[in-house]
Amino acid sequence: MGKDVIVACDFASAEQTYAFLDRFDTKKPFVKIGMELFYAEGPAIVKEIKKRGHKIFLDLKLHDIPNTVKKAMRVLSELDVDMVNLHAAGTIPMMEAALEGLTRADGSRPILLAVTQLTSTDQETMTRDLLINEDIADVVIHYARNAAKAGLDGVVCSPLEAKKVHEVCGAGFYTVTPGVRFADGEVGDQKRVMTPAQAKIEGSDYIVMGRPITQADDPAAAYERALKEFTE
Ligand code: C5P
Fold this sequence. Notes:
This protein is about 45% helix and about 15% strand. The chain contains eleven helices and eight strands.
């Protein structure tokens, strides 16, 4: 696995999502389903997209007591998704419990990633609201190291952090990176962006791209472009 483009399907309904996915007739992209769509449409949308032949990253960012996360992960694992995530802030026991819950009777399980600090959290809010006085870059790396210690497969991070995460957690520890834009495209509300080609150089294992593909006039062409830039 690894070195793939994940398309963030940030749509409000199943109809919009299926209409978008219908535009891909050759290669079926790996897709990311977030909270909005999952809470609106439920497990049925995951099953339908799976049936259509897509891999799925279910981006629900679990964070609760270990026992609750373990049981919730068991349910998600049964949905046969390929990738799920949680907040590393839930601590190592929670991450270990999540892995236990995810592991199926035959030993297989989805890839499990940790979110370190959300990119919406900056140094100031982290210090003021969370009373964490360390440097935010160190906190991100510390959380990544915790995730690796707990046995997780990788983290969601900025492509700018991918090299450092690999140095600390090993080359086989996945970095899944949003904040990717085409060189000639709109940046939108993302602050620090990289092109797919730059993310490749930084060592990202998977890039997550939403609007540059979902809002493109020709989504399949935009997807092929991202895939080519990132993997060739
Ligand atoms: O449309 P865009 O390419 O900005 O979409 C990026 C996707 O990655 C969205 O689903 C967004 O919620 C998600 N994401 C992000 N930054 C993070 C974590 C997740 O943009 N740090």
